[in-house]
Amino acid sequence: MIHVVKKDSPKTRDTIIIRLLAILGALLAASIIVIFAGANPIELYIGIIEGCFGNLYRFAATIQKMVPLLVLSLGVMVAFKMKFWNIGAEGQFLMGAVGAALVVRYLPNLPLPVMIFAMGVLAFVFGAIWLLIPAFFKAKFGTNETLFTLMMNYIALNLVVALQYDFWKDPGASGMPKIANFPDNALLPSVSGFNLSIAFAIILVILIYFLMNYSKIGFEITVLGESENTARYIGINITKTIITAALISGGLCGLVGMFQTAGISGALSVEITGGLGFTAIIVAWLSGLKVPFIVLNSFAFAVLLQGGSYIQTAFQIPGSVAEMIQAIILFFILGSEFALHYRFISDKKKREVA
């Protein structure tokens, strides 16, 4: 029988080589799909680069895709560092958007700076509360946070559906199930396609880096993630640490709801997440729960998303082909992670090692 066993931590050189081989293998495998779709693989890959960096507008679009993924990944990372498996970033994202839209709906005439501040605060609070609920049950009753946070996603989604199709439906939308667009005083200022969410993201990266590496709460979260018994032994308040980490994690994911509604879509809708909450889980995990690598991987995924969108139009290939290319690349990258950290051994070899 074949068994999967964990390897020792890989060397940096091995990590670089295996990941480069994974990317090369992904491009070769994706080329087969591209050829069957009637396109030239080399031209298509060049098109992906042009779609991301060809001009200022395209680069701005790439950064716009990076920002929500980056902040969501930071939020997921904080919870994962404590081994609290927050699979509910999608729901916290949506609830943050609901909080931002709530400010616009009931205080529509606030000045721009006050409006943005109020939207950001309420988005953070709504996202934090949405994760605080499963965190409380985890801390008090030991419930499974993976299932709990996953189910909370669907509650948030159906809440937004109810708002869009009923309670907040725009009467001026000619019967379409749509929530009214935000007014100009509720939109993030932008220059050449770069909006203010980029500045917020930079600040958040710096804050979370120092929080996790140089603060008391960051130390407590890390120790609790390594060993709950050790955390108790050195006097860490387990319940307080879980709740605090959940508030930070959920709040960061909630902030993305404000970034997307006020910076990209201009309105609340069920489509604003685009599955980024689940993608953020992959980004955080592939980054080893380290902030600098989260920044790099968020940018790489944004290039993949923006490039995939561009080639659909530029090369007139079906959207399904672009999605398959993205999936193949992601599959090979995840496979490389497995190759770096695990290996197969037979029963005979296992007995010899023992």
Automatic annotation (TrEMBL):
Pfam entry (one): BPD_transp_2
Annotated protein name in UniProt: Branched-chain amino acid ABC transporter permease
Annotated GO CC locations: plasma membrane
Record keywords, A-Z: Cell membrane, Membrane, Transmembrane, Transmembrane helix
Localization in the cell: Cell membrane
InterPro entries: ABC_transp_permease
Membrane topology classification: Multi-pass membrane protein
Major subcellular location class: membrane
CDD domains attached to this UniProt entry: TM_PBP1_transp_TpRbsC_like
UniProt organism field: Acetobacterium bakii
GO molecular function terms noted in the UniProt entry: transmembrane transporter activity
Lineage: Bacteria, Bacillati, Bacillota, Clostridia, Eubacteriales
Transmembrane segments: 16-39, 59-80, 92-108, 114-135, 147-167, 187-212, 233-258, 264-286, 293-312, 324-342
